[in-house]
Design brief:
12 strands, 6-stranded parallel beta sheet, globular, 354 residues, alpha/beta, Rossmann fold, 2 domains, 14% strand
Length: 354
Amino acid sequence: MSGGGSGGHVFPAIAIADAIKKISPETEFLFIGAKGKIEMSAVPKAGYEIKGLTIAGFQRKLSVKNLLFPFKLLVSLVETWFIVKKFKPNVAIGTGGYASGAALKVAQWQGVTSFIQEQNAFPGITNKLLAKKARKVFAAYNGLEQYFEKSKIQLTGNPLRGSISLDGVDRKLACDHFGLDGQKPIVFITGGSLGARAINKAIAGKINRFDETGIQLIWQCGRIYEAEYASLNSPMVKVLSFIDRMDYAYAAADIIVSRAGGTISELAIIGKPTILLPSPNVAEDHQTKNVMALVEKDAAILIRDNEAVEALVPTCIDLLNNTELKEKISNNIKQFAKPNAAKDIAQSILSSIE
């Protein structure tokens, strides 16, 4: 299995592995990731072995780092060749990210049956190339026939971490976990596992507005921004680099502010009123395409990065005070929920190789 670089690629891969293991406990797993990235800690924590590659993505802007890209790619392909040859997998599963490209391509060269899971409404170039020799493409959104062979596509939704559910999660316990008052409104803000500068800057710039209106924050700022915003931590504002108990964060929140990658599938399951800020720094602006699928159904509010500083905090406050709109968004986003995605993908993979 391979997928990484961000939580949006890693956690779906782990969810698929968990689902396969539940159906077929004797299955052996090996993950392939990129050294220094989130998968190198998240995968072992989930109980799986992982091998790291010497690889980095190609920078879309002019960068001296791109001079090293061909060398690192060649090295990673050689590394992967020996890893795959030794492990002798029956199946290779890719969930995106540059390590996934090397891992799946080498597996395909060695004749291993491969599967792709695409989290977005607009696929990245890695998955578009790999899908040509893949057995199936598991899609999170409709309308991918223009990118992948129609016969290969199976609409499943995005596989989610097992803890992403509000079933049995007590809101008071969730609020206590973060040291917050469950009688006061709470906004959960997340820029993903890596953090989002535009979201962080917008929140920090008008953080007094939350305090003035009695609004509490659970703010996952990202590890690289922790030192910059740690001083804003207070009894009303919980600044955290990373949140392990996302179920508690979701349960405590009255509304959610988020980036718009694979997290959208989690938000649909949770069903809370949501404000989405698609990252402009991703391939082909695919997060905006993800958001528009929801906005067209009144299932989320869209704010662009260049609007965030002025619009994000006022929009949060307005939404908290608009009961009718909160209920409308909550009801509509639930229509996008596909809670059985990991199980459906696991069953499809296992049945394809019997």
